[in-house]
Amino acid sequence: MSSKADVVVIGGGVVGCAIARELSRYRLDVVLLEQAPDVATGTSKANSGILHAGFDCEPGTWKARLNVRGAALYAEIAEGLGIPRREIGSLVVAHSDADLATCESLLARGRENGVAGLEIWGADRLRAHEPSISADVAGALWAPTAAVVCPFLATVGFGENAIRNGAKIHTECGVTGLVTAGGRIVAVETTRGRIEARFVVNAAGVHAADVARLAGDDSFTIHPRRGEYILFDRSTGALARSVLFPTPSKVSKGILVSPTVHGNIFIGPNAADVDELDDVETTAPGLDEIISGARKIVPDLPLQNAITEFAGLRAAAGKDFIIGESPIVKGLVHAAGIQSPGLTSAPAIGEAIAEILADLGLKLTPDPTFVPVNPHRPKFTEQTPVEQMARIAADPLAGRVICRCETITEAEIVAAIRAPCGARTIDGVKRRVRAGAGRCQGGFCGPRVTAILARELGIPVTAVRKETLESWLFYARAGLEIREDIDA
Ligand SMILES: Cc1cc2nc3c(=O)[nH]c(=O)nc-3n(C[C@H](O)[C@H](O)[C@H](O)COP(=O)(O)OP(=O)(O)OC[C@H]3O[C@@H](n4cnc5c(N)ncnc54)[C@H](O)[C@@H]3O)c2cc1C
Fold first, then answer.
1. Would you please indicate which residues are annotated as catalytic (active-site) residues?
2. In whole angstroms, what is the distance from residue 301 CA to residue 303 CA?
């Protein structure tokens, strides 16, 4: 565990990992602290996965600037970092003249924000593009630069690259205190010891206000706003070609129907204020709300093909992101209140935070050894039969399919565990390689993934966790032997 750093980043979501990766370009000691066993366990694991084009943010805000810049950065860097991204465009679907007027004003706003390619489509063009869409549509706003991305692999991709360039990521390391002297941050207290730090970046998601208060900064509060989702299996992929938004409301972009980057379809999210910072339950009324909302866009939803539901929490803190030095504590820099489009903006937030730190006196000397990409790890299913045979010949584990729904091999799982910023939990494996993300949701491969994790991490299966610090799935019963061998 590090005892000293130039910059400590608190929070291993997409924002914290993107900041750590950006800072790893420079000759700096950068340490990221995450309280959970893995990165991408907060809001970054449960969102719509859309790289927004940037037409709905109020011009002049952080959101508007960082959304457009972030989307452009992903287009440049996603492939090299191993972040799946598909540029499928988005449509804001209008059902009435009033909706069309909203689309016109979004188009004007998007042009002001510098979004390229925006167009208003009539109903016929919309129906030709989206055959499953409701019969009563009046037209749409088309944004060709919108894309879908894997939010887990975005976070992991930034985190892995930060580590490859010298940053350290400590998981299971909760920040419990911020130490100040003369109004300046000097150290961070954690569950694993103290780290002296010149600068601290607060990227703690819905917990960012609590983290700020550890230093006596009560300049903002965060109100969690939950969004629930239903995910369908890949047989439904033809329901939507592009991201289908309704015309937006004041509090959210509304309930959408969208492809994921992996070819599934999801519907959601709704927007419900909740009291607890960890309330990610799905509810019957919430699911009813998203089903009826989504049916306004695509009436025939194959609900029998739903494979899971989940929810994420928006870190609602006001109209714009809170980015900049704390007004109370010098050296403490917030990347807080990062609601949507936070996933899209993340790499641009990294750039903005680096600039702010430089203005505050941090010397940014480029590190000539910086490598901007991660090693390419081809998916077994995307290889040709000849390549697959060669891979199996070189590594027999490539010939063992562990997840049957998604055809994920043991070799891919092992690589995901052994990589920098590697998986430490069953969900960590699922989010990196999709073992357990298919139709059976881990019913078949879950015990096998558990055994592989136990073997690779050198721990008993009773110590393997699903996701959170205390999410063990197995316990030893007196008189029963636990078999660690998945072939048994
Ligand atoms: C329903 C919904 C839909 C969304 N859809 C989109 C979308 O389509 N496109 C888009 O661009 N954005 C979207 N967003 C927004 C996007 O998901 C967030 O802006 C982004 O994930 C925020 O990332 P983060 O790193 O700030 O927070 P998080 O991912 O929550 O990470 C914060 C991390 O800090 C850690 N932490 C907290 N306290 C401590 C502590 N004391 N010590 C150590 N670690 C700590 C947490 O464990 C957590 O891992 C959506 C959000 C929601 C809720």
1. 52
2. 6
Taking the C-alpha atoms of residue 479 and residue 167, their distance in angstroms, rounded to an integer, is 46
Output the pLDDT for position 488: 39
474: nearest Cα among 487, 461, 459, 458? 461
The answer to whether 149 touches 47, Cβ cutoff 8 Å, is no
**CA dihedral of residues 278, 282, 284, 289 (deg, nearest 10):** 100
Ligand 1 centroid, distance to 42 Cα (angstroms): 5
Burial 115-150 (b: 16+ CB within 10 A, else e): beebebbebeebbebbebbbeebbbbbbbbbbbbbb
**Spatial distance between the Cα atoms of 198 and 247, rounded to a whole number of angstroms:** 45
Cβ–Cβ under 8 Å, residues 322 and 334: yes
Angle, vertex CA 333, rays to CA 329 and CA 337, nearest 5 = 115
135 CA from centroid of ligand 1 (Å): 36
Structure tokens at 334: 């917030």
Query: C-alpha angle 356/357/363, rounded to 5°?
Result: 130
Q: Distance (Å, rounded) from C-alpha 11 to C-alpha 14?
A: 9
Ligand 1 centroid from CA 127, angstroms: 35
What is the CB neighbour count within 10 angstroms for residue 99? 19
Contact 195, 9 (CB under 8 A): no
Instruction: Identify how many contiguous H helices and E strands the chain contains and give both numbers.
Output: 12, 22
Ligand 1, pocket residues at CB < 6 Å: 10-16, 33-36, 41-44, 47-50, 52, 174-175, 203-207, 211, 227, 269, 312-314, 338-344
pLDDT at 483: 63
User: What pLDDT sits at residue 251?
Assistant: 62
Using most ligand atoms within 8 A of CB, pick from 340, 349, 468 the residue to mutate for ligand 1. 340
On the question of a cis peptide bond just before residue 269, with omega within 30 degrees of 0, the verdict is yes
Per-residue pLDDT at 183: 96
Using only C-alpha atoms, the chain has a radius of gyration, in whole angstroms, of 23
Q: Whose CA is nearest to atom 41 of ligand 1?
A: 175
Q: Which residues contact 203 (CB under 8 A, 6 or more apart)?
A: 9, 10, 11, 13, 15, 16, 19, 335, 336, 338
Write out pLDDT tens, residues 149-189.
999 999 999 999 999 999 999 999 999 999 999 999 999 99
Query: What does the alpha-carbon distance between residue 105 and residue 108 come to, in Å, rounded to a whole number?
Result: 5
- Determine the pLDDT at residue 485: 59
Which residues fall within 8 angstroms of residue 445, CB to CB, at 6 or more apart?
402, 403, 404, 405, 408, 435, 436
Residue-range domains of the chain with CATH: 90-144+223-316 (3.30.9.10), 380-463 (1.10.10)
In this structure, which amino acid lies at residue 94?
A
- Give the residue ranges of the chain where pLDDT is below 50: 488
